[in-house]
Amino acid sequence: MVILLSLIGMVCWGIAPVFAKIGLKNIDPFTGLVLRSFITSGIIALYTSSGHPIIKFKDITIYGLLFIGLEAIFSTLVGDIAYYAAIKKGNVSLVTMVMSASPVVTLITAAYLLGEQITITKIIGAMLVILGIVLIA
Asked: Is 32 a domain residue?
């Protein structure tokens, strides 16, 4: 199930930048991000208001709120503004390739903050990701 969900995410994240590039043609990146956020929020609000028991607000802790908030700032705010600005100005295939190196940053951060092991296999994989970006750029 994890692989299937990952593949769905991969396909969606692979298609979405092309739509973003087309959509950003006549609007600035920040406006595009706001528009995307409104659309996503609207869909989530509809889902939430339909009474789905999957959403458990009572389970939210201060700790969880803090780290989801940090993830939102790094990912959705700063990361997405940089992503939209890069897509608007550059070649969408190059931008997404560079951004696809984010797992290398995750590898290092997870080792530091979560104590995850960095294995030789992970190091080789990270080096191949970086080499691939260098070759494409």
From this structure: yes
DSSP letter, residue 26: T
- Read off the pTM: 0.80
The sign of the CA dihedral 32, 64, 50, 4 is positive
Judgement on whether residues 42 and 81 belong to the same structural domain of the protein: yes
pLDDT for 1: 87
Distance, first Cα to last Cα, the chain: 34
Residue 121 has which token pair? 């296999």
**Domain shared by 33 and 86, yes or no:** yes
pLDDT in tens, 47-72: 888 876 676 778 889 999 999 999 99
Domain hosting residue 131, numbered range: 100-137
